[in-house]
Amino acid sequence: MYLTIEETAEYLTIEESKIKALVLQGRIRSVYDGEQYLINREQFTTHMEQVEKYQRMIQEYLNEPIPEDIDVKDED
């Protein structure tokens, strides 16, 4: 499925100007149909999967309880 720059910006939650700059730099693959750039959405699948994976890893890390420090001595 092909998206316009505006649709891609919404899909990736990035500003349109940034998407256009990345297209013009060749960092995002696109096709120019004479009127607008069309971007294949499938090229972002791996990126989105990796983002989700790292979000899950961070959430698991944050949910981990803090272990008791074995060096703490009772002062009483």
Strand content: 5-15%
Strand order of the largest sheet: 1-3-2
Summed over residues and divided by their number, the pLDDT gives a mean of 89
Radius of gyration: 22 Å
Number of domains: 1
Low-confidence stretches: none
Oligomer: single chain
Q: What would CATH call the class?
A: Alpha Beta
Q: Could you describe the largest sheet, including whether it forms a barrel?
A: 3 strands, antiparallel
Keywords: DNA-binding
Protein name: Excisionase family DNA-binding protein
Organism: Virgibacillus tibetensis
InterPro entries: HTH_17, SinI_DNA-bd, Tn1545/Tn916_Xis
Tags for this model:
single chain, 76 residues, mainly alpha, Molybdopterin biosynthesis moea protein, domain 2, 3-stranded antiparallel sheet, 3 helices, rod-shaped
